[in-house]
Design goal:
Blueprint lengths: L2 H8 L6 E7 L8 H14 L4 E9 L1 H12 L7 E10 L15 E10 H11 L3 H17 L6 H15 L16 E5 L3 E4 L1
Parallel strand pairs: 1-2, 2-4, 3-5
Antiparallel strand pairs: 3-4, 5-6
Helix pairs in contact: 2-5, 4-5, 5-6
Length: 194
């Protein structure tokens, strides 16, 4: 066995994802290690090269304020995504259209209302953590380039959500007539992704 291989086994490679989690809500008790795993797994499945992601867990009044200030939508929502920076790295594979995040280096924020998650989980009869997981995955997919404005884009995003959520044995509760209502923005574009 080579010395380099032995060192790698003893000291696993540092993740290419820098994840900061802020929890300023009191509606749900959430495990930050699990949420970090959700972020790492989702970005890994999307073949993102490197990312700095801030995940904020807040309540409805706080997300309502952010939605109004940054997107001019005067209502609380479930998840907001803000792409702050994105560049294609040298690992990007132009032929891989299935994964818009393939080879990307990005910086962004995903903001989740746990109050909305708790309410929606009760309505759809599943665990509030599962609802939060759906919101985190949905927000991350927006960061890496998925969109849900047009019906074909929405279906593609839902298909990808289903695939990612299967990692934890989850099947999204929405029917084809309902969806996660995230709002997302980047430095150059603002949009409602309902």
């Amino acid at each position: 066995m080579s010395y380099d291989l032995l060192l790698r086994r003893m000291r696993p490679e540092r993740s290419m994802f820098d994840i900061e989690i802020t929890d300023s809500q009191d509606h749900l008790t959430l495990d930050p290690d699990f949420l970090r795993q959700v972020v790492e797994t989702t970005l890994g499945m999307e073949e993102v090269a490197a990312a700095t992601v801030s995940l904020a867990l807040i309540d409805d009044p706080a997300i309502h304020d952010l939605n109004r200030r940054f997107l001019e939508h005067d209502y609380p929502t479930d998840v907001l995504s803000f792409l702050l920076e994105s560049e294609v790295s040298h690992e990007h594979n132009e032929a891989n259209d299935d994964r818009p995040g393939c080879g990307l280096r990005l910086e962004g924020e995903v903001i989740v209302s746990t109050e909305t998650a708790a309410r929606a989980a009760a309505e759809f009869l599943w665990n509030p953590l599962d609802e939060v997981t759906l919101y985190v995955v949905h927000g991350l997919l927006h960061l890496v380039g998925y969109d849900d404005h047009a019906e074909t884009d929405r279906q593609r995003m839902r298909d990808r959500e289903r695939a990612v959520l299967q990692t934890w044995g989850l099947t999204p509760h929405y029917s084809e007539s309902t969806s996660v209502c995230s709002d997302s923005a980047s430095k150059s574009e603002t949009g409602d992704h309902r």
